[in-house]
Amino acid sequence: METIKYTLTEDQMPTAWYNIQADLPTPMPPVLHPGTGQPITPSDLEPLFPMELIVQEVSQERWIEIPEQVQSIYRQWRPTPLYRARRLEQALDTPAKIYYKYEGVSPAGSHKPNTAVAQAYYNKQAKVKRLTTETGAGQWGSSLAFAGALFGLEVVVYMVKVSYRQKPYRRALMEAYGAKVIASPSQETEAGRKILAQYPDSNGSLGIAISESVEVAVQDPQSKYALGSVLNHVLLHQTVIGYEAIAQLEQAGDYPDIVVGCTGGGSNFAGIAFPFIGAKLRGEQNSIRFIAVEPAACPTLTQGKYTYDYGDTAHLTPLVKMHTLGNSFMPEGVHAGGLRYHGMAPLLSHVVELGLIETRAEPQLSCFAAGLTFARVEGILPAPEANHAIKAAIDEALRCKEEGTSKTILFNLCGHGHFDMQAYMDYQAGLLRDTEYNAEEVAMALAGLPVFN
Hints:
This is Tryptophan synthase beta chain. Keywords: Amino-acid biosynthesis, Aromatic amino acid biosynthesis, Lyase, Pyridoxal phosphate, Tryptophan biosynthesis. One of its GO terms (molecular function) is tryptophan synthase activity. The structure is a single chain. This protein is α/β, with parallel strands linked by helices. Helix content is about 40%, strand content about 15%. The protein folds into two domains: about 5-10 and about 80-110 and about 240-445, Rossmann fold; about 115-225, Rossmann fold (3-Layer(aba) Sandwich), CATH 3.40.50.1100.
C-alpha cells in the first residue's frame, strides 16, 4: 500500500517556535526610528504591540515556548497533514517525489491562524480591547477575526480595495467572525483621505492599508496593531509548519532536496523553510535548495532594492532594511492579493542576502494553470497565492524528468481557494491577463526612499 498522507498526533505537535536568528552567521541590520535614524527601543514599539511580542521580535533565543492556551487552540487543526502528491507525480511522469504541507485545514483556510491566535493571546494578556490590521486577499483578516472572536477582542480590518471587491465571501467570513471590514483607502483615516484626494480611483495596496490600521491603533490607548507577515515574531510563529514537516518526512523515510514556498511578506515561506535552513546552518545537512516564488507583477525579491524603507505608504512605521520596490509602489490588481506588498520581511530579506535562498517571479496565468493541474489530480483547489509555489514545484519536477534524476520536493500549500472562485472563473473565461511590474513606477518609488540608506 502506498502511503498518501502522513499525520502526527496532537501530542507530537511542536511545543516551541524556532527563532532562526539564533543560527544566523551575521545578525540582521537594526530597525531604525524614522525621526532620528537611530535603532529603535522597545518603548518606541509599545504603542503598536504588547511587550511580549516586542520581546519576541528582538529575541536571539533559539526556542520560544508556545503557551499552553495557544497550543490548545492549535490542536483544533494542528498538526496539519503532509501529503505525498503521487497522482501529480504520475501526471507529470516525473521521477521526482513531491510532498506538500497542507495549511488549508485551519478554520480560516490558511496558515495565518498560526500567528493570529498567538498575537490575540498576547494582546488579551496585555488587556488590549481592540486590534486593528490590514489584509490583502483576506486570509490574514479572516484569521485575526477568528482569533479575536476566541479571545473576546474587537477586530477592525482595512482590506485592500481591489480585494474587497474581488473577494466578497472572504469579507463575509471576517464579518461572520464579528470583525468590522473597511475598504482601503477609506475616508476614515487621514492616511486614507490623503490617498483618495490624490488618487480617487485607487485600488489600494497593503502599504496603504497598513498606514490606516496603524493610524487608528496609535490614536487609541486600548487598541494595538496586528500584522500578518513581515515582522520577526510573525515568521517565528509560523515555524510550527516546518517542524511538523520534518517529523512527518521522518515517517516517510525521506528528506527534501528542494523546499518551495510563495512569498509576499514572507510568513508562509519562513514557516516551511526556516526550520530546514536552521538545520543547514547548524551543519546537520548541506545539499538542500530553497526557492521563494513571488508574482511578476510585484517582484520584491527579484527586482527590489535591499535597503531601508518604511513598511507603509504614510510613513508611520519604523524603518527596516528589506527588499523593497518603494513604499509608494502600487502593484497591479492581480488575484494573488496576499502577495501584493512593496516590501519583504527583513529577516527573510537578510537570509536571501546571505545567499541561502533562490528567488524567482512568475506571471499569474501560468500560476493559475499550475493550480488547476494540481486541483484536477490532487483534488484541492489552491489559493491563488499558493499557485506560485505549485508552479515552481512542477517546474522542478519536470526538470528532474528532463535530467533523469530523482529529487524530493517539498512545498507549502498555504491555503485553499474556496473564497477565490471568481478568480478561477475569470481565468477559465480568459478574462485574466499577465501584468509585469512597471519599471518606471518602481524607479520613481525607489527615488523617494528615506535618507537613512
